[in-house]
Specification:
By secondary structure, this protein is of the alpha+beta class. 19% of the residues lie in helices and 27% in strands. It is globular, with a radius of gyration of 11 Å.
Length: 74
């Protein structure tokens, strides 16, 4: 979780930017993803999730807000 928060702070993200709000791999089978808090239906759309998670290449993710606050780990 801390790696995702750190990566978020280093990169910064906007949910309004074009493309998926996936910050990248943080450990084997773990990716860092950005979502709204409270979650919105758009956060559950496959095109808004990390590509490796959608394709089954990664099994887990940590979600943070655009302000790098932890939402959940899955």
């Amino acid at each position: 979780m801390q790696k995702c928060i750190k990566l978020c702070k280093e990169i910064g993200i906007s949910l309004n930017q074009e493309g998926e709000p996936c910050l990248g791999e943080i450990a084997l089978d773990w990716f860092c993803d950005v979502a709204h808090l409270p979650r919105q239906s758009v956060d559950d759309l496959p095109e808004n999730q990390c590509q490796d998670f959608r394709e089954g290449k990664a099994k887990h993710f940590v979600e943070v807000t655009p302000n790098c606050k932890l939402i959940r780990k899955y």
